[in-house]
Amino acid sequence: MGNTATAQRAAWEDLPSPLREAVAATGVPRDAVTSYAVAFAGYCARCPAPPAVPNLRPYQARAAAAALHWVRHRTGW
Hints:
mainly alpha
């Protein structure tokens, strides 16, 4: 359990300081933050781009990849 606790602490500490402080001040559970990142990644990966916005899909793919990277970092998956 020591390694898991260390990994969780490190994952929480990777947030920029103002964001980390804001999330900590609200009392939002760590799992809720991770769940949101998973949901955001899934949304960006699966949501089709509207025909009138040709550059949106590449942006969504990059956003999904970044969110998944962060989730992997936070969870060790």
